[in-house]
């Protein structure tokens, strides 16, 4: 029998939420005791939310508390048609903000190639690589204000796999700040893992911070599963942890907050 446990961890602010998440990842890797014939597999997000968590993980590594030598990572998504070395590509984001500061083998850091000649074949190969790695032990994700996880926009199938997605106008507008506010520079398509891909992970941790994500958090945990709020699918995952700050709880019922704090 599968026991579904959904946890909501509420911290006072963004920094404490980031630190809690980083400690959790660190402990998971250490407890797993990875080695040459046993890699820990970690799913990773991009965006502004995980930056604090990555900073902490780098700190743990530099202090000698954590090694990524036997860790394989799989990123959630990548833009289509953006050169890999473009400052806003997710390749650049991951290397600049995380990978180049730790001891991961570059061959073990998997990011979808948005410039592949056959995009669907690239997505299928990514799913195959995850399977060959033994599946994902811990998938870390962030969400958009509309409750989307990775680029699984509202209306995405909750059993979807890695695929090519056309981005919603809301997402393009939200991402314009990274492209000098120029909408014409924002990619309109992306490659993304599916909701089903993330659901397959043995454990999922979702980071939700800031008042602008409060309604999405409410939809994620207080209402039913709904493909218009793709993050709500994780209510049904056997091991989900939502990590948030106080600002993100503004739309939750008082008794919900009290229950999870207790």
Automatic annotation (TrEMBL):
It catalyses: alpha-D-glucosamine 6-phosphate + H2O = beta-D-fructose 6-phosphate + NH4(+). Pathway: Nucleotide-sugar biosynthesis; UDP-N-acetyl-alpha-D-glucosamine biosynthesis; alpha-D-glucosamine 6-phosphate from D-fructose 6-phosphate: step 1/1. Residues 20-237 form the Glucosamine/galactosamine-6-phosphate isomerase domain. It comes from the Eukaryota. The keyword Cytoplasm applies. GO terms for cellular component: cytoplasm. Keywords: Carbohydrate metabolism, Coiled coil, Cytoplasm, Hydrolase, Isomerase. The keyword Isomerase applies. Gene3D superfamilies: 3.40.50.1360. InterPro entries: Glc/Gal-6P_isomerase, Glucosamine6P_isomerase, Glucosamine6P_isomerase_CS, NagB/RpiA_transferase-like. Homohexamer. This is Glucosamine-6-phosphate isomerase. It comes from Sousa chinensis.
């Amino acid at each position: 029998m599968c026991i579904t446990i959904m946890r909501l961890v509420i911290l006072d602010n963004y920094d404490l939420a980031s630190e809690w998440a980083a400690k959790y990842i660190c402990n998971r890797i250490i407890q797993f005791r990875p080695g040459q014939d046993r890699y820990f597999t970690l799913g990773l997000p991009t965006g502004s939310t995980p930056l604090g968590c990555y900073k902490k993980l780098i700190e743990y590594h530099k202090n000698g508390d954590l090694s990524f030598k036997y860790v394989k990572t799989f990123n959630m998504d990548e833009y289509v048609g953006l050169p890999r070395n473009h400052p806003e590509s997710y390749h650049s984001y991951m290397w600049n903000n995380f990978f180049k500061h730790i001891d991961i083998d570059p061959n073990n850091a998997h990011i979808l190639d948005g410039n592949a000649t056959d995009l669907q074949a690239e997505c299928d190969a990514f799913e195959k690589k995850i399977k060959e790695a033994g599946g994902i032990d811990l998938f870390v994700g962030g969400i958009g204000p509309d409750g989307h996880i990775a680029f699984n926009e509202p209306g995405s199938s909750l059993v979807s796999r890695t695929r090519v997605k056309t981005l919603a106008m809301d997402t393009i507008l939200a991402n314009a700040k990274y492209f000098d506010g120029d909408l014409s520079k924002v990619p309109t398509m992306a490659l993304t893992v599916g909701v089903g891909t993330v659901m397959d992970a043995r454990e999922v941790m979702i980071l939700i911070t800031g008042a602008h994500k409060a309604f999405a958090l409410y939809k994620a945990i207080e209402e039913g599963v709904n493909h218009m709020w793709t993050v709500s699918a994780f209510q049904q995952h056997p091991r989900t942890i939502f990590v948030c700050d106080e600002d993100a709880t503004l739309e939750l019922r008082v008794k919900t907050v009290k229950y999870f704090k207790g």
